[in-house]
Amino acid sequence: MARVSRICVCVVLMAFGLAVSGCSSALRLSGLGGFDDEPAVATPVAVNPVSPKIQAGDHINVTVYNEASLSGNYSIDSGGFVTIPRAGKLRAAGLTATELADLLVKKFRGEYLANPKVTVAPI
């Protein structure tokens, strides 16, 4: 009987040893560190920075794909407005470049272009 319990103890210890060494390998593979590795270091996560808002006095470049007559550089006037051909005078101050591009897409769609693609970038 003592021999059986010794065998059981040995089997349990071997299983424990295998489990621990497996965890160590898994931790090393996952980059979380292990028993013989350096401690895991937190990797900074890229945070989507807040896009700056357009302000009076800013200059922007508007690109309307396949429509050279609508594309160009424009200035935001002191009241926060920009005047763009076929879109008219639009309040740009307080919007991001993406928001202004979306507004221009809405203005051009249906009235002038079937499927406008617009980008706005600060210059």
Features:
wza like fold, two-stranded antiparallel ribbon, 123 residues, 2 helices, alpha+beta, three-stranded antiparallel sheet
Based on CA atoms alone, the radius of gyration comes out at 31 Å
Helix coverage percent of residues? 25-40%
Number of helices: 2
**How many beta strands in the DSSP annotation?**
5
Query: What top-tier CATH class of the largest domain fits best?
Result: Alpha Beta
Quaternary organisation: single chain
Strand/helix succession: HEEEEHE
Biggest β-sheet description? 3 strands, antiparallel
- The overall number of domains is 2
Q: What form results from the Cα inertia axes?
A: elongated
Describe this structure in words.
By secondary structure, this protein is an alpha+beta fold. The chain contains 2 helices and 5 strands. A 3-stranded antiparallel sheet has the order 2-1-5. The model has no long low-confidence stretch (mean pLDDT about 80). The termini are far apart. A hairpin with a 3-residue loop joins strand 3 and strand 4. It has 2 domains: about 45 residues, no CATH class; about 60 residues, wza like fold (2-Layer Sandwich).
